[in-house]
């Protein structure tokens, strides 16, 4: 019940998912009683082998999440010379420091 709550799914859905995994790998992964659930030896072995992969996935998702608030990509600006000199040149250094992941191209007419 606690695991299902943590995953934000219903307990029956989690049980069905675990049964499906057990069928797929062909071995029981959890010992279930009315009072407890504990991993079998095969369950512990499987978890020990896949835990690093899950950690890598969590790290990749965290990196993606962290970059969502940080603008990135390409920005191309076409401006007349007077506008470039008056508005862009004075803030260009601050812009580059604030947004290092933006590839900026400035076309001056």
Question: How would you sum up this structure, described in words?
Answer:
Strands 1-2 form a two-stranded antiparallel sheet. A two-stranded parallel sheet has the order 3-4. The chain is rod-shaped and about 80 Å long. The longest helix is centred in the middle third of the chain and has 27 residues, at 41-67. The protein has five helices and four strands. A hairpin with a 4-residue loop joins strand 1 and strand 2 (37-39). The relative contact order is 0.09. The chain has helices at residues 2-7, 11-25, 41-67, 81-88, 92-98, and strands at 30-32, 37-39, 73-79, 102-108. With 109 residues, it is α+β, with helices and mostly antiparallel strands. The mean pLDDT is 91. It folds into two domains: 2-67, Orthogonal Bundle (Arc Repressor Mutant, subunit A), CATH 1.10.10.10; 73-108, D-Maltodextrin-Binding Protein, domain 2 (3-Layer(aba) Sandwich), CATH 3.40.190.10. Helix content is 58%, strand content 18%.
């Amino acid at each position: 019940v606690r695991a299902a709550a943590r995953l934000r799914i219903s307990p029956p859905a989690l049980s069905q998912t675990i049964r499906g995994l057990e069928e797929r790998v062909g071995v029981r992964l959890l010992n279930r009683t009315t009072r407890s659930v504990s991993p079998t030896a095969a369950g512990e072995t499987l978890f020990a082998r896949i835990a690093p992969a899950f950690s890598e996935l969590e790290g990749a998702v965290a990196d993606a999440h962290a970059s969502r608030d940080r603008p990135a990509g390409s920005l191309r600006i076409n401006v007349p010379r007077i506008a470039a000199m008056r508005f862009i040149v004075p803030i260009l250094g601050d812009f580059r420091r604030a947004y290092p992941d933006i590839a900026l191209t400035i076309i001056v007419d």
